[in-house]
């Protein structure tokens, strides 16, 4: 079941099209990463989904909402959240819950559960001004979930954090996948690869690829065998290049890079060649493209 459906969405600022006719859907219970470099249109897209800016054209709808205004089912954390730093974490969550129309009794109960979920139980009485960057981001995620949204939208949730803060938030996202549907944007593709189920590739306002992480990688990646040799010689490259199962082969220093169609069958054939020709192999590895490498291929 889809939580959100986006059809032919566009946003134009004067003569510039920031987002160009994009369509996609978000599946219930999945974590989707909106990926692209700075300036690709990620924040503009999320702001339209969250109801903060109006699209120039297109439609955003949710099968889970009977109302045309779907903001009630969405929790949102902007890229640069602001807090009342004189409040404690607990006070801030209660304040946000009451704004959302939740009774004080219910919001305190819900707030304590969320503080435990995001790992802030011990720090809930501390002033937000004393929080680290990672703690503030986790509190921001908690406030976005205070009204139990069907969809959690996070704009660059880890971009401003140090490595420790990033790890904290990424681990939290893995937990939250069990609680709600998530859409988050990032330009750090390695982070997305750790937590997301589906991906949306945005480039210069265009949606250039979408699908499950595994499907997208399968469509664009090139399986590769890497053979490290004790001593280098072009004869090994010549021996491999004529094989029909080899797409491309290169030799650099003492290492042979072999692009193939199928890793398993090609590896078996390569083992046979190595044994028959007595190659001085030091190490043999298999390699698949990372999400970042796939993105670069798609964009190019």
From TrEMBL:
Pfam families: ABC_tran (PF00005), DrrA1-3_C (PF13732). Keywords: ATP-binding, Nucleotide-binding, Transport. The keyword Transport applies. InterPro entries: AAA+_ATPase, ABC_transporter-like_ATP-bd, ABC_transporter-like_CS, DrrA1/2-like_C, P-loop_NTPase. Residues 4-229 form the ABC transporter domain. Coiled coil: none annotated. The keyword Repeat does not apply. GO terms for molecular function: ATP binding. Belongs to the ABC transporter superfamily. This is ATP-binding cassette domain-containing protein.
């Amino acid at each position: 079941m889809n939580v959100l459906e986006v059809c032919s969405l566009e946003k134009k600022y004067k003569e510039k099209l920031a987002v160009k006719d994009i369509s996609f859907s978000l599946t219930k219970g999945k974590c989707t990463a909106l990926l692209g470099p700075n300036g690709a249109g990620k924040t503009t897209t999320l702001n339209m989904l969250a109801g903060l800016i109006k699209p120039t054209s297109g439609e955003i709808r949710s099968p889970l909402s009977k109302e045309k205004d779907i903001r009630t089912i969405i929790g949102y954390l902007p890229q640069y959240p602001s807090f009342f730093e004189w409040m404690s974490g607990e006070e801030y969550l209660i304040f946000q819950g009451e704004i959302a129309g939740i009774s004080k009794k219910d919001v305190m109960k819900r707030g304590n559960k969320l503080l435990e979920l995001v790992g802030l139980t011990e720090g809930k009485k501390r002033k937000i001004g004393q929080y680290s960057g990672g703690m503030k981001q986790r509190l921001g995620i908690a406030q976005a979930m205070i009204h139990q949204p069907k969809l959690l939208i996070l704009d660059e949730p880890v971009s401003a954090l140090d490595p420790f803060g990033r790890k904290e938030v990424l681990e939290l996202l893995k937990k939250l996948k069990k609680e709600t549907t998530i859409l988050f944007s990032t330009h750090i593709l390695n982070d997305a690869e750790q937590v997301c189920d589906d991906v949306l590739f945005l480039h210069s306002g265009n949606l250039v690829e979408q699908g499950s992480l595994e499907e997208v990688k399968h469509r664009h990646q090139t399986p590769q065998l890497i053979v490290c040799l004790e001593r280098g010689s072009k004869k090994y490259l010549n021996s491999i290049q004529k094989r029909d199962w080899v797409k491309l082969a290169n030799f650099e220093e003492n290492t042979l890079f072999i692009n193939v169609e199928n890793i398993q069958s090609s590896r078996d054939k390569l083992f046979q060649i190595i044994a028959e020709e007595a190659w001085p192999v030091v190490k043999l590895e298999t390699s698949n493209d990372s999400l970042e490498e796939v993105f670069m291929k798609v964009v190019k």
